[in-house]
Amino acid sequence: MTSEDVKKKDKAKKAADPRDLTVDVATQDMIARSRDMEIETIFDRAQTMKPCNIGVQGTCCKNCAQGPCRLPLPKSGIEGEDTRKGLCGATAETIAARNFARMVAAGAAAHSDHGRGVAETFLAAARKETEDYKIRDTKKLLEVAPDFGVEIFVEGENGEQVDRDIDEIALEVAEKALAQWGQQEGEICTLKRAPEPRYELWKKLGVVPRGIDREIVEIMHRTHIGVDQDYENLTEQCTRAALADGWGGSMIATDLQDILFGCPYPLKSSANLGILKEDHVNIIIHGHEPLLSEMIVQAAELPEMVEMAKSKGAKGIQLGGICCTANEILMRHGVPLAGNFLQQELAIVTGAVEAMVVDVQCIMENIANVADCFHTKIITTNPRAKIASGHTTHIEFDEHTAFADAKRIVQEAIDNFPNREKDVMIPNQKSELIAGFSYEAINYHLGGTFRGSYTPLNDNIINGRIRGIGGVVGCNNARTLHDDGHLTVVKELIKNDVIVLTTGCNAITCGKAGLLTPESAAVYCGPGLAEVCETVGIPPVLHMGSCVDNSRILMAATEVVKAGGLGNDISDLPAAGSAPEWMSEKAISIGHYFVTSGVYTVFGVTLPVGGAPVFENYLYNELEEIYGGMWDMVADPYEHARKMIAHIDKKRKALGIDKARERVLLDMADRQKLEDAA
Ligand code: NFS
Asked: For ligand 1, atom 2, which residue shows the shortest CA distance?
């Protein structure tokens, strides 16, 4: 071995220290165990494979067979005119904008196809073609029906207004909702839920999406060789597709899921790999669509299943969630969170998982290889998402036979319990949490009146106890210290009296770190936010659900605008968005619908636009003049949070409520003095 080789090996060893890869102790322990067992995980691959330097700049075009054309920024920067061009003449700006647009398209497609699946099941339920899904939350059905143009009253015999039959309403909502995907002209109807000035702005700019599928397809057309060669025009199409996601596909998914499975309200649960139980049949549900997981939750609770588990020597059945499915079944059933995106392979490394059941999205192909080292069965369930590598079982999940399919899956897991052959090692770590903050639940909790309202929240923002609102969401990314970005951003925000709304993998991180409890307010929050949390009895970080449930954040922001006193539009609010550890294309679609809804949105790690400074400037600065919100990228999580806070302060100043906050802080200091004197 040459000295160079030794150096390389030492470096790899050093980088392999699990504490350099994650701040989560359970994850550190499992990385160490995977290394001891010589099982490769994403944490190892992130060391050995470096990202492509041109790809990260966003300036590699492979949209035709004359390329890939690679246009990195010259080391010395650009002096004078930028002469970089692809074979067809595409500039770095065009290439980066096209790549960005394709990410929006893929992200919007993923969320929206999820929504379509929900709408189809909803239609089957409304038509009574399935016994397994029912219209459960009729209150929410009646609330959303008018947004789809569905009447909830009919004229009675004497001309009086009477309630319309609920099944009829459900059927019409199902048909109207599903029609939003294939609609060719007009507008997606749920866009009108936005504050009026926002909707009018979109209309004026001509970016109101016509139909969900149409806007996604148009991105694919425009980014084909030789079509749209104007980054501003491309960005405009990104806006249509992203709005069709956030205010369309995702929002409709959330609505219909709530109607089918119940609108979430606060409940207790726990998080981290420590929720697995050595003496139980452990089933991990991983992926995104609650259609499947809801049925598995019900199947696992059946006394006959529990008995069957006991007959195999287990004490019972333990379910745990990974990724956004985890959030869905946590929000409605309190099923504990096993972990977030980067913990999926490691859950299997515990040796305690009988089955990992997956549907779609954020499922790493390598779970099949890790499972091959254990008795764990990987069960794929969706025709859209199979795994070729490793030994996997496919049990296709059909909405018409859903419960029977779920029972088969649970049975497979139970049958697998006696096959554990390796030692089991379950980390001790798990934290208590409270989740279930739909925007309706926030309304109720903060309002506390008959109808509930956001007015008390607005009052506390206006009087300065709460400085502003931070929406912190999104993935994990193996290129950055796992969970550290999430925690640093969230802790800095709440320390500075910014209340945090969370979803996705960020929510799971916060749950693991104990930030989703009311008690954490006294430890981590600034005095103003701590006081509000204590009075109302809520955590400073409110778990609102999965990634499609970012639509709940949009609705919460809309409710805050409507409650009054904080301007007329989302862009007037002292609020900012963040995805500190993002990695998926869905995150880009989410980021873009937040930006174009008027929110200053900061991403961590990197954004693939750095090689195209003009397009980058357009996203980071010029969009603010158009939409009142803009993109930003700050890799350092502390600086990231500080920029959000600076933006919140800028908005407070514009609203003329900056002085109020100074008074509150003075009050607190004075109170402190009095307490000290006493
Ligand atoms: Ni959303 Fe990211 Fe995946 Fe959920 Fe987690 S990785 S964009 S947070 S699980 S979708």
From this structure: 475
Q: pLDDT per residue over 450-469, tens digit each? A: 456 788 899 999 999 999 99
Q: Is residue 62 part of a domain?
A: no
Structure pTM? 0.95
CB burial of 64-84 (b: ≥16 within 10 Å; e: otherwise) equals eeebebbbbbeeeeeeeebeb
Nearest CA to ligand 1 atom 8: 504
Partners of 317 in the beta sheet? 281
Query: Distance from the CA of 362 to the center of ligand 1, in angstroms?
Result: 6
600-643 pLDDT, tens digit per residue, is 999 999 999 999 999 999 999 999 999 999 999 999 999 999 99
- Whether residue 257 is found in the same domain as residue 278: no
- Nearest alpha carbon, ligand 1 atom 6: 475
Tokens of 510: 């916060």
Query: Quick one: which atom of ligand 1 is closest to the CA of 503?
Result: 8
The minimum-distance atom of ligand 1 relative to the CA of 546 is: 4
Q: Which atom of ligand 1 is nearest to the CA of 474?
A: 8
475 CB under 6 A from ligand 1?
A: yes
Nearest CA to ligand 1 atom 9: 323
Same domain for 119 and 185, yes or no, is yes
**Domain CATH number, residue 402:** 3.40.50.2030
Closest CA to 208 of 219, 217, 216, 199: 199
Same domain, 368 and 517: no
- Which residues of the chain fall below pLDDT 70? 1-15, 447-452, 666-678
609 lies in which domain range? 434-677
